[in-house]
Amino acid sequence: MIGETVSHYKILEKLGGGGMGVVYRAEDTRLKRTVALKFLPPELTSDSESKDRFVHEAQAASALQHNNICSVHDIDETDDGQLFLVMDCYEGETLKMQIAKRTLTIEYATDIAVQIAHGLQKAHEKGIVHRDIKPANIIITKDGVVKILDFGLAKLAGEAGLSKAGSIVGTAAYMSPEQARGEDVDHRTDIWSLGIVLYEMLAGRQPFKSEYDQALVYLILKEEPTQIADLRSDVPPSLVSVVTKAIHKDRDKRYQHAADMLMDLKSLGEESGDEPPRKRSLTERTQPSIAVLPFANLGADKEYEYFSDGMSEEIINALTKVNGLHVVARTSSFAFKDKNEDIREIGRKLHVEHVLEGSVRRSGNRLRITAQLIKIVDGYHLWSERFDRQMDDVFAIQDEISLSIVDKLKVTLLESEKNALARRSTENLQAYHLLLQGRYLFHKSTRESLQNAIEKFQEAIALSPDYAQAYAEMAVAYHFIGLLNHLPSRDVYPKARAFALKAIEIDPNAAEAYVVLATVNLSYDWDWEGAESAFRKAIELNSNAANVRVQHAMFLVYRGSLNEALAEMTTAFLLDPLLNPTYLGFVLLRIGRLDEARFHFKKSLESELGPMAPWMLGHVDVLQGRYEEGLASIQRALFLSGNNAIILAGLGWSNAVAGRRDEAIRVLDELHERSRSEYIGPLLSAKIYSALGENDLAFEWLERAYEEHDSSLVAILNDESFRGLHQDQRFDELLKKMKLKQYDIIT
After folding, report:
1. What is the DSSP string of 656-719?
2. Alpha helices by DSSP H, 130-187
3. Which of 100, 155, 594, 655 lies 20 to 30 Å from 665, alpha-carbon distance?
4. Of the candidates 96, 85, 74, 97, which has an alpha carbon nearest to the alpha carbon of residue 150?
5. Are residues 530 and 430 in the same domain?
6. Which of 428, 465, 457 is closest to 440 using CA atoms?
7. Contact 38, 21 (CB under 8 A)
8. Same-domain status, 573 and 676
């Protein structure tokens, strides 16, 4: 039929087919739009009664207007009497295709299930039952929107539909028990099928599987599927419970409405399913859990904000040294700074049983510190205290708060842990204040604030030469300057290494110093074994630190250990409930799972005000051919970043990929001009030249990046920006020099 015109539709290509008909992409010659035509098998509409019944059902389906349901525009027939439906045509992949490629992340699978449930809820409210929910009938558009197909073949609730009494219409592997028995079905059969689809997304296989339909029917009616936990260990029990209830063989014990299943899916995370069920619930934890919120600064002088923040951070750092106590990371706890949110809601979002909140009022050398430990489930104050002391007593106050928390949560301390809680990195109060001021500046993360932070740490070290924490903070700051390309790697990474080694010399348990050592080994020396060893030591010292897991996951991506990287990033998200989804999106991007990466970058936009999420979202859009949309996102990221050079280079690369050569060259000229007054990493120019097809120039700038030890070069193995260079012998030679040749490359 390719090339033929049916009615006013010109057939362009065949998209697929199955038991319910053949689908073609076609041009609507009247409205000049692309549509999908589904031609029904003649046997389904062979007599006038069947044809009338089908038209009636198609009319009902066409009335369904919902974002997650494929719209039916028309029903027509060919000259020889064959009926066909006219539907929207979407760019994307069926869920069946996506499952066949890979195991889906829990967040992505849950989001798909939520969208399917939304569509079913709408249909069921109209009295329409689909009867054939399966991955092949679910399409995910390039924008990440789920569309349910084939409602044109649905059965109106309570009617006989297309099938004769006692016959079966549907796909055996996804049939409910009542459907498999040939009984009349209602909306609960769709709930069963959705449960089967969710099982398959999570487990990577169908719960009931056989080559023969008769055997499948027996399994559906008589056998229980393998437990999801036996097939995949990271699926939360709460999500398993949703699947189990959806596929209960007794439909009266199933979810009775799609809205009920939808509510449970949403309740696994934030409202509207925005926050996925990637975290363990309170009932799943086997150890006490706590979040230390930023202490409120009640003093008249806001300059002392650093001190109230520092109190919270010091208590967090102390508690993380206690085995058997889960402490939420600073990034998550500080997300609630200056937000007047109910304490129980905070506990729910952070998935903790207890929250410590407090306040600091400073007047000259006098301190008033209040702290209260609250049990989330009932709001009961397990412990509260007010300290009216001199500033000289601040260390003792922090110790008392930490020990009181451990005591009230009934955590047994080992002798080494007691010593760790009591150990102070300095006794010099002025040095301590300088460290807190430096840390406060560091978290602002601007070029100027990072330099000012280093100056504070230097002053602290001058006052207290054995201040291990100050050396560690100095190492982190220098590493961060190199990471952001503010200065050449050779100017910062040797200093970062020296300060990290000094911190370890003074305190062999300085976990953050080992992380810096790992990243210097990685980004400056390309010493992959040394980096792995340092990361392992950091994890051994602080296995609950999400930021360490994130950086280790990135190391695994750079090395090409992509499945390990995804597993490590999953662990990081378990440890830090509010970790930025951009991190997970980046790993999925490097693996090549663009739809899932885009899903996480879009999710980041809802909570992140900075440039990273729109930049990464735009990058994926460009890779998937949505150039206008992608370039607009990257332009926004560039504005939010204050014209950051790295994002500017990303705009240049994207313009080159989109075929806008003049715009890409304009970006190159701007980068080269800016390099006269600020440091611009050579790799940025190499990326744009690579996208322009200027391979010789790309390798010239890559060689400069190698000679300068440009820290960004560490990601070259699986950076999609350089895919066009992979077949060039010079690329292999570069990988060998960086000791990367033995690792895996994505082609």
Report:
1. HHTT-HHHHHHHHHHHHHHTTTS---HHHHHHHHHHTT-HHHHHHHHHHHHHTT-GGGGGGGG-
2. 177-180
3. 594
4. 85
5. yes
6. 457
7. yes
8. yes
Residue 443 sits in a domain whose CATH number is 1.25.40.10
Please write the tens of the pLDDT for every residue from 479-518: 999 888 888 999 999 999 999 999 999 999 899 999 999 9
Q: Which residue, 53, 257, 30, 237, is CA-closest to 155?
A: 53
Whole-number Cα distances in Å, 232 to 47, 106, 226, 501: 49, 10, 11, 40
Flag whether 49 is in a domain.
yes
In terms of Cα–Cα distance, which of 421, 363, 412, 368 is closest to 394? 368
Q: Give the DSSP H or E segment for 372.
A: strand 366-375
315: confidence class by pLDDT, cuts 50, 70, 90: confident
Alpha helices per DSSP H over 320-428:
330-333, 343-350, 394-408, 415-422
Q: Are residues 649 and 679 in the same domain?
A: yes
Mean pLDDT to the nearest integer, 389-393? 85
User: What is d(CA 710, CA 117) in angstroms, rounded to the nearest whole number?
Assistant: 48
Report the percent of the chain where pLDDT is more than 90.
Answer: 44
> Which range, of 7-11, 142-146, 221-225, 552-556, averages the lowest pLDDT?
142-146
Residue 198: strand, helix, or coil: helix
Whole-number mean pLDDT of the chain? 85
Q: What is the mean pLDDT of residues 257-261?
A: 89
Looking up tokens 């611009």 gives 680
Predicted confidence (pLDDT) at residue 388 exceeds the cutoff of 80: yes
DSSP-based three-state secondary structure for 73: strand
pLDDT at 308 over 80: yes
Give the Cα separation of 601 and 605 in Å (integer): 7
Instruction: Say whether both 372 and 308 belong to one domain.
Output: yes
Residue after which a domain boundary falls, among 32, 55, 89: 89
Classify residue 13: in a domain, yes or no.
yes
Examine the domain organization and report whether 309 and 250 are in the same domain: no
Q: How far apart are CA 320 and CA 371, in angstroms?
A: 18
The three-state DSSP-derived secondary structure of 555-600 is: HHHHHCCHHHHHHHHHHHHHHCCCCCHHHHHHHHHHHCCHHHHHHH
Q: What CA–CA distance (Å, rounded) separates 730 from 474?
A: 38
- Helix (H) / strand (E) element for 382: namely strand 380-390
219/269 Cα distance (integer angstroms) = 33
Residues 6+ apart with CB under 8 A from 482: 489, 492, 493, 496, 523, 524, 711
Burial of 420 (0-12, 13-18, 19+ CB in 10 A): middle
**pLDDT of the residue at 744:** 65
CB burial of 147-167 (b: ≥16 within 10 Å; e: otherwise) equals bbbbbbbbbbbeeebbeeeee
pTM of this prediction?
0.67
One domain, residues 287 and 377: yes
* Among the listed residues 213, 134, 145, 161, the one whose alpha carbon sits nearest the alpha carbon of residue 53: 161
Whether residue 403 sits in one domain with residue 382: yes
- How do residues 272-297 score in pLDDT, each as one tens digit? 333 333 443 333 344 688 889 999 98
Six-digit token pair at 676? 């006269």
pLDDT-based confidence at residue 16 (cuts at 50, 70, 90): confident
Structural domain count of the chain? 5
- CB crowding 588-618: b at 16 or more within 10 Å, else e: bbbbbbbbbbbbbbbbbbeebeebbbbbbbb
Helix%, strand%, coil% for the chain, nearest 5? 55, 10, 30
